[in-house]
Prior knowledge:
The chain has one domain. The protein is 19% helix and 17% strand. The chain has two helices and three strands, in the order αβββα. A hairpin with a 4-residue loop joins strand 2 (40-46) and strand 3. The N and C termini lie far apart (33 Å).
Amino acid sequence: MAPIDFRLxxxxxxxxxxxxxxxNPLSEHxxxxxxxxxNRIKILMWARNGFVWWQKRLERDRFHWPRGESATVSMxxxxxxxxxxxxxxxxxxxxxxLAYQYVx
Length: 104
């Protein structure tokens, strides 16, 4: 899937899922998006009576985003956790762990 404009919020992401991908944003599937630099991920999910929206921002490194010809990729929960932990699913190697003492 191609990177998205990260200014999109919940409604914009839901519309993108529905119109661009042809999927139902009200299903209980997780819809995962990245930005152009592959250092941020947004996850959108419908949970019974409203949307849940998660976001992760890397301070260093990039996510090893699955590449392919399809606009969508199916993965297991474990593979999603690996992606969020920084594993390259092809090389099985995570990002380095950062140990900051305070927020700047």
